[in-house]
Amino acid sequence: MSTSAIRSYLPPVIEVDAENELLEVAMGPHHPSTHGVFRMDVALDGERVVRLKPVFGYLHRNHEKIAEKTTYLASMPYTDRLDYFCSMTNNWAYALAVEKLAGLEVPERAEYIRVITAELTRIQNHASAIGFLMQEMGASGTPLMYAFREREKILDLFEELSGSRMMCNYMRFGGCRVDLPEGWLDRVSRLVAELPRFVDEMEALLTGNEILMARAQGVGVLKPDLAVNAGVTGVMLRATGVNYDVRKVDHYGIYDRFAFRVPLGDHGDIYDRYMLRVLEMRESIRILEQALPQIPAGPILDPKSKPRGFRPKPGEAYGRIEAPKGELGFYLISDGSGNPYRYRVRPPSLINLTILEDMCLGQNVADVVLIFGSVDIVLGEVDR
Amino acid sequence: MLGEGILKGLAETAKNFAGSFVSEERLTTVEYPEQRLPQIENTRDFPFLVYDGEDPMAGLRCVSCQICEKECPPKCIYIVKSTDKKPDYVGKAQFYPTRFDIDISVCMSCQICVEVCPFDAIKMDTEFELSTSDRFGGLILDKHKLAKPNSYYQKIHPTEAAEVDGRLEEEKQKLEAKAKAAAEAAAAKAAADAAAKNAAVAPEGQA
Amino acid sequence: MKTAEELLSELQKALPGVQVSLVLNPSPSAQHALLVAAADALRVAFYLRDEAGYDYCSNATGVDWLDREVAEKVRTTRTVKKDVDGVEQEVEETIEQTVKRMESGYLEAVYHLYSMKMGPTDPHLPMVLRMRTENRTDRTELPSLTPVWRSAEFQEREIFDLYGIVFRGHRDLRRLLMWDEFEDHPMRRDYVDPDDYEYEPTPHDEVLKRAEAHRAAQGGAQ
Question: Over the Cα atoms of chain A, what is R_g?
Answer without folding.
Answer: 21
